[in-house]
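Example 441, ligand shikimate-3-phosphate.
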Amino acid sequence: MGVLMCPKVNTVAVRPARNLLGSLRVPGDKSISHRYAMLAALARGRSRFDNFAPGADCASTLGCVRALGCKVERDEKGSVVIDGLGAQLRPPAAPLDCGNSGSTMRMLSGILAAQPFSSELTGDESLSRRPMKRIIEPLTQMGAEIHSANGDCAPLRINGAKLRGIEYAPPVASAQVKTSVLFAGLLAEGKTTVAEPARTRDHGELALRAFGAAVEPTNVERTRNAVSIVGGQTLHALEAFVPGDISSAAFFLCAAAIFPESNLVIDGVLLNPTRSALLDVLTAMGSRISMVRVEESHGELVGTITLAPGQGRPVKIEKSLTALLIDELPVLAAIAPFTTGGLEVRDAGELRVKESDRLSAVTRNLQAMGAQVEQTDDGWRIPGGQHLHGAEIKSYDDHRIAMAFAVAALRADGETLIRNAECVAVSYPGFFEDLEGLVER
Ligand code: S3P
């Protein structure tokens, strides 16, 4: 066995591989699953989602939706059924537990801000450190009253109110903030506009439309990244298949990219252009990628990706591209030493406030494996053509760090131990088994 779980200490041992070969489907997309579940709660009637994301993060959202009065059922095949209550939810009997999930806390806040009751949102240790001012500010401007620890952190106490629409230009490019304000805008009086500093994933807009709401691109002075919603629209229930999560597929695509003989096919994966910049980066790094059987499902593109590796050039990720790749940067950095040309990442300060400080977590783990890496204020410079050795990796209880270094470990000399690897269950409970199924030794 290449991957060994040691249940007592939650350590996974990863041995080097020769190749990565085969095909798979990845779990349903996390970003879409959160949004579908929240909007299903606000819709009239019964919604059903097949291939709903199986991780703990989306389970936190389902738990909150249930605590807000909706009937939620989940079967063993991964389908979720939610009976919506319309725009008015029920007051929760206890604090809403968001677990490790920033998406749950930030996006649900937009809905709770408009309810005629008070609610409390709590999270685990990591979530309780993450910045919430970014949603407190716009939701307060809209009329809600929100109390937080130190003005920025969970637990949040939200006193809902009748909201009014605003024009909001968030200082950070964040799809969670955009979606939170749009959800509040749906329940507010008048029109709400969000004008982002850089384009972020557009699942909030697409999901709102899929449930029957009109969301319009708007021309706001100085920015093209603006969308608007008029409050008071009624949502209808939705039946949908959630496409495979491209941020989970990223680990296998990156693993395949670093073995000269690999060949990988991933079916039914999300190809939304605001999420698929990884494919351009891997192409620049040398991979030959094709997309076939591309279809649209409720506004989202879905298809099959095939990847075969090759020789590439140095790659620089900066400015608006950084925002589009925010969840894929840890794994891109983890494979960068094995690429021909190396990688430079800039403008990625947001990585410091994810589930862990991903800038330092990546740097420390790469260094533990003997890599040369220069960490800057907001990114890294990582030369290509390096040889790494197996090492003891700290996950920092961050799912994407654990998975990124399981991938790097495949190309290192000797065994790698990934500590606290159980955190992969936040987004991908079967990750190590799926990886092992593709690896050749
Ligand atoms: C997400 C947006 C990103 C991403 C997170 C999911 C979303 O966060 O890192 O994993 O579903 O909107 P930010 O919006 O804070 O950048």
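Summary: DSSP finds 13 helices and 25 strands in the chain.
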